[in-house]
Design brief:
The chain has a 7-stranded mixed β-sheet with strand order 3-2-1-4-5-7-6, sandwiched between helices. Helix 5 packs parallel to helix 6. The protein is of the alpha/beta class. It has helices spanning 9-20, 36-42, 56-69, 72-75, 118-131, 147-161, and strands at residues 26-29, 48-53, 78-82, 99-103, 137-142, 168-174, 184-190. The longest helix is centred in the C-terminal third of the chain and has 15 residues, at 147-161.
Length: 193
């Protein structure tokens, strides 16, 4: 008997993004990390992609990945910025922002000292929803497999539950036949008025 296959959470989010985005869209990767989400998004030929991270080595790893896998033309729409995700409102967007992507936790392969936390993430999310165009969305991947990550996910879920349903559609995806501390994905989209 063969083992059933399943797509990890990253494949799931990439599928959603591909269906949701068009080449005219502006996107922020609020936690670019090693650059894999940034690379995926850049290949969708967006109008503009801002990739931010608080860690210099994350920006450098993302730049290296993009330089290795993208043409000059593909890289032209990508801007890398070293800053905290809680300061994303400092990016000049001119009113058009379709998606903000969060892949929370710590930089894979790092010493895990620097990581997202509930305070800075909630600040970023609150600022982020005010920046989105009508119909825009937040894509948030949470990692509750460590104490801070679990605390962060709980805080985000509580915050998301309080968003008015007349303005926001909130979905939470979790694999229910996996360990309870497996990654989960929140999709928060502004209602088209």
């Amino acid at each position: 008997m063969s083992t059933p296959s399943y797509s990890p959470h990253i494949h799931f989010t990439h599928f959603i993004w591909k269906q949701f985005l068009t080449p005219n869209d502006v996107v922020i990767d609020a936690t670019c990390g090693n650059g894999h989400d940034t690379l995926y998004l850049a290949k969708l030929f967006l109008k503009k992609l801002y990739a931010i991270d608080i860690q210099k080595n994350a920006i450098e790893k993302t730049q290296l990945l993009l330089n290795t896998h993208l043409s000059k033309e593909e890289k032209a729409s990508v801007e890398l910025i070293q800053m905290s995700h809680e300061d994303l409102d400092q990016i000049c967007l001119n009113g058009f922002l379709k998606l903000i992507v969060y892949n929370l936790g710590y930089l894979p392969g790092s010493d895990k000292i620097v990581k997202t936390n509930k305070t800075s993430t909630l600040t970023s999310l609150q600022k982020g929803i005010s920046l989105l165009e009508t119909g825009g969305a937040l894509s948030i991947t949470c990692y509750p497999n460590h104490a801070e990550g679990e605390e962060e996910e709980i805080a985000i879920l509580e915050w998301a539950k309080d968003l008015p349903s007349s303005c926001w559609e909130v979905r939470h995806h979790r694999w229910i036949n996996r360990p309870s501390r497996s990654p989960s994905v929140l999709w928060i989209q502004s209602c088209i008025r």
